Amino acid sequence: MEIDRPDVDGAVIETNATLVTRRVDITSEATLWLTSIVLRVYVTPVISAFGLVTNIINILVFSRLNLKQGATATFLVLSISDGSLCLLGIISAVFSMLKYLGPSHLKRTVNVLNVTVLAACTVPKYASDFSTVVIAVVRCCSVAMPLRVRAVLTVRRQLMLILLLVLTAVAILCYSCTIYKYILVRDPQTNWTHLILTLTPGFTKKVQISDQYRGVIFYSSFIAVNICLIILIYALKQSSQFRIKATGTNTSEGLTEDKTTRKERQVVRTVVMVSLVFTVCNLPSIALTILRATVPGFRTVGYLFRSFDMLFMFVEATGMTSAAINIVVYLYSNSNYRKVFNQIFRPNHKK
Which intervals hold domain G-protein coupled receptors family 1 profile (predicted)? Predict the structure, then answer.
């Protein structure tokens, strides 16, 4: 993610009231360019296109399931969010292709448009992350006190909670976007008008505040999902042991109990798999946020901006991967999903 920087050699000049220093990024321009071509022109577009198709399928399937169940409704929201993210990823990929492979006079304007699309990707990404958090937390609480959770955390309240969290995150995003300003600049040599993204006065303080709030949101979500993941894995293990004992006794009471818990195990298994995907695919984001907080200059406008851009491209790719592969989880762990999927896309399929 790039903006117009005051440097032509690759070493950004950083200034304060009394000191001017010149530092060189550890990532070369050639390395960044090659990585950009591979990830933004080839890898991420393919993942985004695949994710858009799979999430359209997910939306069709979940819309035919029982939306009165909290898990189904939240999975539908998750699919809509992931599909929107992949759609924006495709648009960003088009701008990236124009930037790296298109006419030179379009590169600066296309770059600004791409940055804008990447900023817009934050909204469905937040919606996807918060949906995953709500799914994991609600299912985790249901393991301990199922009746109380169903009474308190109704489907409507779960959806309202996701909406509230997304609106809060969007407000923080809008605040962080005030550090930028769009201007039109005409190049007298080529007579082309370029769209430029510049920094407004006092941007440093706004960036720090925005990073702090977004860090709290991200780490809270990541920690919550992983705590719930541990609890759900333990609950799934206990349920499997009970199932073995119930099957071994072969009594009507044991079989009835096993039948009533089979559906719950299926939901828990799906939530566990989705949470695992969330955790693994967010590891590059964890690295990015840690480096931004601990390494001076590791940010979009710092002297390590090329290293930041390179890691950010991996964050983009893994984010799209997380949005694209949930269909594999649903087909593997959810028999109701498989049933509706076969009815829609494989009507002649034999069980």
Answer: 54-330
